[in-house]
Amino acid sequence: MQSHLSNNRIEELLGKVCSSADFNRQQDTTIVVHDIPFLRERIRSVARAFPENSMHTIAIKANSLSGILGELKDQGFGLEAASWGELKIAEQSGYPPDKIVFDSPVKTYDELEYAMKKGIHINADSLMELERIAKLKEKIKSHSNIGLRINPQVGVGNISITSVAGNYSKFGVPMQERRQAIIQAYEKYPWLNGIHLHTGSQGCEPEMLVDGVRHVYKLAQEIQQKTSHQIVYFDIGGGLPVSYHRETEAYSMQYYADLLRESCPELFDGRYQLITEFGRYIHANAGFVASRVEYVKHDNGINTAMIHVGANMFIREAYHPQQWKHEFSLADPQGRIKTGETENPWIIAGPLCFAGDMIARNVSLPPAKEGDYIIVHDSGGYVLAMWSEYNSRQKPRAFGVKENGKVLMLS
Ligand SMILES: Cc1ncc(COP(=O)(O)O)c(C=O)c1O
Asked: Are 79 and 87 in contact (CB under 8 A)?
């Protein structure tokens, strides 16, 4: 599996976008570019790694461009929607109800009723939410499958703010404290036919993800014994970390699935239907950001490249620079990546009105000039999707390049 887009491929994609009729050099000061064939291969690698009857969904939060989600629809995957807005995006992108999984820790009665009427798979985040679903079931007819999100409590991994399986988490029902209550819920609600977990995003090694699944799998076995085999859907969430460093090989989906098979073989023998919800693994390495260098400053022995995007799109990178790092290249105005002697240190600063608006500090780059482009590698997921409107800056446009070289405008 290819872990990253090569420089040659980035130049090719950038060249195609910049020469397309839709690109406007004056206005498109920052663009996000997605490699559609790369994305398709990531999707195929998920399908190859898990049993054929699995239901794979892509986490919309990683990349909510309906242009891209619509384009990927023919791959047979569904979507995981973590909010009402994402549910609407899934529908607008043409996904049928039976291809949508609705997760959110704060679903309202109205949202639940809507999803239940449509027959969308729902993962309840709490026992209280199950009670709401039970009340609605008395009122309306629904063939939605319903799961319950469990917090496996296996630890917080390397990045605590994106790990959700600590002893305390705002998500799910904690297994240790609530084991009996969870089992009783399955006894009480015979329609509760799914079980769900998500351990964390990016900061959890595959072994830790497997540990989380194993804990929930044991719980599911106990529930099966007590309720005469009522769980049909086993949703393992997402979370496989990707590599943001081009020298580092990423974990393959096959590696993760093999570990899982070793640890929980019955998850692979057809007695459950597996559901997956990967986001970062699908999108992050498949795209990059190119932002024009508007000015270059050389003060106090520091070089600063002033570009058009900062903490408004690279939120985690600006506020938690030790944990969230991308790699950068410099391209000339024609989109050719500059190589040769580098200078250090460079700061890459954004346009926003606060001092911390930097997406990189202390990086090595060849000498940058006005009109060059800073390329931010591995920016296809959790970047544009996290856009913030501060300073009323215009949201960058996104493009996709297809197998035949055709450029799609995605936003
Ligand atoms: C419930 C749930 N499922 C899936 C995902 C996707 O995780 P990742 O993009 O790391 O695969 C997340 C991410 O936060 C999540 O909260």
From this structure: no
* Assigned architecture for domain 7-33+285-409: Beta Barrel (2.40)
Q: If you measure from the C-alpha of residue 341 to the centroid of ligand 1, how many angstroms do you get, rounded to a whole number? A: 40
Per-residue pLDDT of 353-392, as tens digits, reads 999 999 999 999 999 999 999 999 999 999 999 999 999 9
Which mutation among 253, 277, 378 tests ligand 1's pocket best, with the greatest number of atoms within 8 A of CB? 277
Could you write out the three-class secondary structure of 166-206?
Answer: CCCCCCCEEHHHHHHHHHHHHHHCCCEEEEECCCECCCCCH
The pLDDT-based confidence of 160 (bands split at 50, 70, 90) is: confident
CA–centroid distance, residue 200 to ligand 1 (Å): 7
CATH tag for 104-278 (out of 3.30.365.10, 3.40.50.300, 3.40.50.1010, 3.20.20.10): 3.20.20.10
**pTM, rounded to two decimals:** 0.97
H helices of 242-380, where? 253-263, 280-283, 315-319
Residues near 269 by beta carbon (within 8 Å), at least 6 away in sequence: none
- What's the gap in Å between 42 CA and the centre of ligand 1? 16
Greater pLDDT, 190 or 340? 190
Per the listing, tokens 């819920």 go with 185
Ligand 1, atom 1, lies closest to the CA of 198
Residues of the chain with CATH 2.40.37.10: 7-33+285-409
The larger pLDDT score, comparing residue 250 to residue 181, is at 181
**Strand 30-35 vs strand 233-235: parallel, antiparallel, or unpaired?**
unpaired
Would you state the structure tokens that stand for residue 12, as one six-digit string?
């090719």
CA distance 332 to 338: 7
CA neighbor of 85 nearest in space, from 67, 104, 71, 70: 104
d(CA 360, CA 357): 9
* Ligand 1 first shell, C-beta below 6 A: 59, 61-62, 80, 103, 198, 201-202, 237-239, 277-281
Question: For the chain, what percent of residues have pLDDT higher than 90?
Answer: 92
